[in-house]
Amino acid sequence: MVEKKIRLAVDADWQHISRISKASGYMDYINNIGRAYMRDGTILVCDIDVPCGFLKIEMLPDASAWLSGIRVDPEHWRMGIGDSLTNAALVFAISRGASYARMLIHSENQRSVSLALKNGFVQKSLFYFYEGRPDTTKMMESGKQYDALVNVGWRFANHAKMKEKLGTVLTNSGSSVFIYHDHEETFHFLEMNEEFPLLPNGITCVPDHLDSLIKNGKKLEGFEEALVYEKPLI
Questions:
Q1: Domain ranges of the chain
Q2: N or C terminus of the chain: which is more exposed, having fewer CB within 10 Å?
Q3: Each residue's pLDDT tens digit, 95-121
Q4: Which band of pLDDT confidence, cut at 50, 70 and 90, is reported for residue 173?
């Protein structure tokens, strides 16, 4: 049996992370970000003589851990590396006081869906992503809290449980939109009571039960829909 070593990434691992990400066949947002990818969160690396896989963990202010960027070099597929990284990430998250672990998976990524289900995650929410943004000029700021997941920079946290204000809720006539402070071109519908057309520029996230109310919207090419998977840790 090969020996797998899970460890924290160091700066020198970037060349391996870049190589693995390119080879694994996913949308290569990691290389688009470049070395800045190493600055946020905690990255775990799996070594089998050389680095062959990695995963990022980010602690969110709703007491959850966000898992992303699970990548395994194709030459090391079917060796349990994804499982080992995921299990190590869950141990790390528990040690940091996380109540939940979550991940976002493109609906067609069956390999990652299988990994999530195998490791005890369950489907929590389905979101659709559109090019464009709603017209919020007539909306007013609201202090309402929602027991629902909101998009905080392509990570999803429970709005009602966030210990700090990461974004603003705007509302008008029964429709509400969350705007993440660090990514103000990203909009997330929480409530809608009528059809909404989208204006140019920006990205709009919509939970599946509201999707039919987006009028004349164009789905985000390459990432039209994705699922949030969740696992309770306590």
A1: 5-98, 126-227
A2: N
A3: 999 999 999 999 889 999 999 999 999
A4: confident
